Structures are given as structure tokens and as C-alpha cells.
Amino acid sequence: MRLTLILPILLSLAACATAVGTAYAPAGKSGYGYSDTRIEDGRYRITFAGDGATAPDVVEDYALLRAAELALAGGYDWFRVVGRSIDEQEKGGVGIGAGLGGGGRNVGGGVSGNLGNIGARKFYTARIEVIMGKGDKPTDGQGVYDARSLSDAVRARTAPAQ
Prior knowledge:
Elements: H1 2-16, E1 33-40, E2 43-49, H2 56-73, E3 78-91, E4 94-101, E5 110-118, E6 121-133, E7 144-146, H3 147-158
């Protein structure tokens, strides 16, 4: 009985939630945003963790943007992505299940099932490792980016509408 009262309220709250997404900023106490580790001169490991309203392509763009910023700040012109991954994790929501069974003196079987996790969100985290360089950008393959061009392109794509 309580479930029939609580479920509509939870569904209404989930439907009313606004999806803004993680802002491009250093990861704070929430854990969302970017972080980076300098491995050696011109080599970094960068992570961008998005909240449940941040699309996977935006998470990847923000990791690349951080790489471009580090390259430019270090006097580099380009960077090459030498490792990349994106992780997906589902969090939150309300698990709904149903069951049916026999008991007492009756011999019976049971049926149960999971009806889903209503209101759950997917959280994406992009991880890249980059090597930075100066001068002309290598043309020997994919995964090499001009730091200035990439920075300008990502900022233009992810800028809030005005």
C-alpha cells in the first residue's frame, strides 16, 4: 500500500528534475569535473567525470579541452592521445520488483522478477593519456590534435546558448 503512494511521488520528482550537466571546472568535493596528473614532462593523464545529466560526448570533449589547456599552458602546440577510455555507471533510481509464491499447506511454486530501476541515471567518466609536442602537428595518424584549434572548437560547441 505504501509503495502505491510513494511511487507516483518519486516518479513525479524524477520527471521534474532538470538536466543541466557538469560544468567545465576542476573536480570538487562532488567528484564531477576534471582532474589531471603530470606523468613526466609533456605527458599527462586526464579524467573528466560527468554527473547524470552530462552526455558521453561532452565528457570526452571536456577531457580533450583540458589536454589542450595543459598543452597551451606548457608552451606546446599539439598533443597526441595515446590512451583513452570511457566508463559508464548507473546510479540512483528506485528498484521495482514483484513476486508471487505459494505458502501454508499448499505446495506451490514461486515467480519473481525485477521490473527495472526507475529514475536511474548514467554517469560517464572519460580518461585520456596524452603526449604533447611543439612545432608542426604530426600527420602520421589519428589522435593528434592542434591544441589551439581543439580548444576553440570545443568551447564553441559547449558554450551555453545566449
